[in-house]
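Lecture notes, unit on protein representations.

Consider one protein chain, 109 amino acids long.
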Amino acid sequence: MQTHVDSMKKSLLTLLVLSATTLSGCQVIYGMSSDFAKISLGMTKTQIIEILGQPVSVAADADKGEESLIYKRMKHFFSESPRTYEVVLRSGKVVRYGEQYKEKNINHF
């Protein structure tokens, strides 16, 4: 009887570890949206990359003189998939940042 109980405890522990690993996997890959709380207007591109890491994509708009750094982040611990966040720089300084809601931005990765 004790062996059966020990076996069930080991199985339950294994299940818990696997569940926690699976749930935290995307956070490790993408990070959390709370990282954006460390950003402020006027920061440089170097400072942003030090905080958030390398962006998944970079875009530029010569007419506006803007550069956009695109990041993927998990909104919550139990988020199903990452969301897209944008940091916009003008003259090398942050002028806007946050979650990107533009319909034209369709990244499927």
